[in-house]
Amino acid sequence: MKTVGLIQPNFQTGPKHLNSWYLPYTLGCLWSYVNQYKDIQDNFKIHSWIFQRPLIGDAVEQLVDCDVIFCSMYMWNINYCYKLLSTLKRINPDIIIVAGGPEIPWRDKNFFNDHPYIDSIAINEGEQAALAVMRNIIAGEDLPKTLQFERIKELDKLPSPYLTGVFDSLIEANPDIEWVPTIETDRGCPFKCTYCDWGSATASKMHKFHMQRIHDEINWCADNKMPYFNFTASNFGAFKRDLEIADYMIEANERTGNPAVLSASYAKNNIDAVYQIGRKLLDANIQNAPAASFQTTTPEVLKNVKRDNMKINSVAIVTQKAKEYNLPIMTELIMGMPGETYSSWLKVIDTMFEHNVINMDIFYLQLIENAPMNVEDKETFGMETFRAYDYFYETTSNVEQEIDNGTAESINIISSSSTLTEKEMYDLSKYSWFVVGMHSYGVTTLITDYMYRKADIQYSEFYTALMEYVQTDPEISKWFEQHKEGYSLWKQTGYNLHTIGGYTIKGGWKGINSFMPIAQLNNYVPRLVELVIEFIGQYDIQHEVISDYKKLALLMPKQFDQYLLEPATIELTSDLLQTSAVTVSDRYNNFPKTADEHMDWLFFGRRRNWQTNLITPFNHK
Predict the structure, then answer these.
(1) Residue 269: which residues within 8 A CB-CB, separation 6 or more?
(2) I need a labelling partner for 472 at 20 to 30 A (CA). Which of 13, 273, 506, 565 fits?
(3) pLDDT digits over 193-250, tens only?
(4) How far apart are CA 280 and CA 286, in angstroms?
């Protein structure tokens, strides 16, 4: 009986205190597929799983006696995997190593010269490749260097790793972990966005898993006390049946309390269904953020990235639908895409705010290994990048050691393009940092909306001037200086351990979202509100409007030790919100007990508007 080691390392996900880790779903799928065949059952068994990132020596000790290794490589684990696999091969030259995953640079003709310790690689889906490898081993035949099969269209032929018990022993051996399951409802993506590599399945027909399997998997995950579900569908809501899948989750939640949170990538051309799903889930107290993934609204950029044929590009239609379903709307934006300029980016954010899209998750453009933009378009658009080692999770304290020993993970982040100089790219970063902090976290949302509505003052005009004005405060001025220094160091070193206002960022992905957490750490929300009031003194605004703004601006950001344990009713004397009274309440009745937990939630809960309290018109009876 030959023993198999399964390697799919990942970082911890979510707030630290939850101890959440993804189940190694990809390799679970491979094993459940191959293990349905008797010849595999008779000749192979699982020896070990690697799903975290133990020290290389510890992982080698766990795996070195295996006969076969299957390793699934992603951008967040590829360097760790290279180091682990090369060490395993050096210590045990007879071990057979097969690698797959979307990050493998299979187009590189020198791949096997650079990585001679890898015996074979699987391109695209891995189930059939894994079966072929194992049968070659049984037959004593040499392994092909590359294995590539047609995509499986009849997905019902794929056994579920959950329902076949693949993960049972892993879960039993790790009772302290809050597991995050990955649930597939379909495979493939019909779109061709050039920055994306959806498991190497972009521009492909979508194929569906059977509804009974999905129903049973949802119940299995709920019964195993997994509160956070991760759906891998590229366009959840694209099919009518996705509404029924939402009902499955609601039924499971009513029975077990799980799932409590859903993460999904929603459909781009079926907005009505997306918001029906979002409304259903929120009514059942399942947190979710049906993101309108606009990415940009600049027509030339949309054309450059082959995204100009989507209904989601109409911000007015999308936001009107959200209003019809009484849903908060959030969007994802990508900063620095080919053709974007400084002025066009400010217009993108203006467009969001004009349509009441308050909550924005802004990402720097990332050039992914096998995405068309990286393979075909990099030179065309003059894109220059730097290597970031901290874009998946928090920077570890030993990041320099990880870089030296080759295990630090990285991704190429945009630094300039033919339409954005390096300085302009930094200016975009600074502006986005400030605007997300002030607007998406609730300090200026109401007053900027009022001034746009009443005086047609553009958001970018307001925020550009306000950003300069707040720097008259010496403490805030230091934050901006530290931000600039931190951005420069990030580009030089590839990791962010810089301190701004006493807060150490510890992660490139956190940078854009850190302004308000820094302000709260320094108890500076009241001072920011004062500065805004001073700034708007140059405009002809009634005293009553300013008074109402101050009341609400101090309540809208969710602040530690100032939680709204009960809803507060606020009387208004102006037309700031065109109502005479509002109720301000906590969205989720979630009140962290420590300042550190609160800071975690400001970052990890941002996509669900956790960071702002809910303001609704008060219904006088």
Answers:
(1) 235, 238, 310, 311, 312
(2) 506
(3) 999 987 556 557 899 999 999 999 999 999 999 999 999 999 999 999 999 999 999 9
(4) 9
pLDDT tens per residue across span 477-509: 999 999 999 999 999 999 888 899 999 988 888
Contact 316, 355 (CB under 8 A): yes
Name residues whose C-beta falls within 8 Å of residue 498's C-beta, 6 or more positions apart in sequence: 482, 485, 486, 489, 490, 504, 505
Half-sphere exposure of residue 339, counting CA atoms within 13 Å on the CB side? Answer: 14
Q: Where are the beta strands (DSSP E) in 463-515?
A: 499-500, 503-504
What token pair was written down for 450?
């009022």
Burial class (CB in 10 A: 0-12, 13-18, 19+), 176: exposed
Residue 619 to residue 616: CA distance in whole angstroms: 9
The strand ranges marked E within 307-457 are 330-335, 359-364, 366-367, 384-388, 411-416
What are the angstrom distances between the C-alpha of 512 and each of 93, 166, 431, 571?
A: 46, 39, 9, 34
- Residues 288 and 250: their CA atoms lie apart, in Å, by 12
How far is the C-alpha of 571 from the C-alpha of 617, rounded, in Å? 10
Q: Average pLDDT per run of 10 along the chain, which is 621 residues long?
A: 96 87 97 97 97 95 97 94 98 97 92 97 95 96 94 93 97 96 94 81 81 98 97 93 97 97 89 91 86 90 90 82 85 96 98 94 93 93 94 70 88 97 98 98 98 96 98 98 96 90 88 96 98 96 97 97 96 96 95 95 91 87 48
Contact (CB, 8 A) for 340 and 74: no
Rounded Cα–Cα distance for residues 249 and 282 (Å): 12
> Which residues are paired to 617 by β-bridges?
582
Angle at 245 between CA 242 and CA 248, to 5 degrees: 160
Cβ atoms of residues 595 and 560 within 8 Å: yes
pTM for the model: 0.90
| Rounded CA separation 194/187 (Å) | 18
Angle, alpha carbons 360-363-364 (nearest 5°): 145
SS3 content of the chain, % helix, strand, coil (to 5): 45, 15, 40
127 and 34 Cβ atoms separated by less than 8 Å: yes
